């Protein structure tokens, strides 16, 4: 006699004895689809990521370019003052540009790593040239002073104490012009 086939929409169940022994049907937990953040990414070239960080062209690239242009204008006018081509007001203009460029970049959202390094290195160069100008030449005393001042400015920059190297040079230059020999 053929066996009767039971037609049902539900799957067959294990007997009680089988379920107590752990033979019941076990299902694997479902895994969620991987999120876009958890997908493996291709390794990046460390130089290209550093380059993109330094020269990032954000939507505020005009303000970052303008801030660097103000730094360049201040650098040029200060160099012309130190060279004796322009009078003292060019040094004052360079000092004002140095104070304004960072403020322009911060307020307009154009702060870049390149702009910060450019402004800092312009300050270091002008500090060195200013001390050489005040000493007349690179005498041993000015070299010792310069060897002391540049590391101090680097340390203050790393500690995020912001001051301009041009400030000290400008003030010392004006004092020498007013009270000098």
UniProtKB/TrEMBL annotation:
Belongs to the CDP-alcohol phosphatidyltransferase class-I family. The chain crosses the membrane at residues 64-86, 138-156. Pfam families: CDP-OH_P_transf. The keyword Transferase applies. This is CDP-alcohol phosphatidyltransferase family protein. One of its GO terms (biological process) is phospholipid biosynthetic process. GO terms for cellular component: membrane.
